[in-house]
Amino acid sequence: MSPDLTQWIAEVRTLQQQLANTQADRDQAYNSAANWRRLYETEARQRREEAAEFQAQVEAFQQQLAATPSRVIEQALVNADSLQGLQQQLDGLVQRCQELTQRLQAEQQAHNQTRQTLTSALGDTFDALT
Length: 130
Description:
This protein is an all-alpha fold. It has helices spanning 3-67, 69-79, 83-129.
């Protein structure tokens, strides 16, 4: 065999090995992207379910409030020993409403943060792929 032919064969083998390594890296990047996509979809589904539960709670509270406002007020007036007692009950209800609102906002922020984190990770994976 001539030295040129031997060198050419060695270069072809080197290129074949590089191609195999590149294909393995590509497959690994695809698998990583699929894993991140699966994690994102799982997290998004959980967040949607939690948001739906919170929304259902809010709607239930709104229906309760809409269905019995006058009866609740009448009962509160009858049961209240004084204006101060009624004010305390009202303050308690307002506080509960604020707590639920804060929980909902915290959940929305957590969802947004998770979405941003997973989107960034997915983007980094695609950048690594290219």
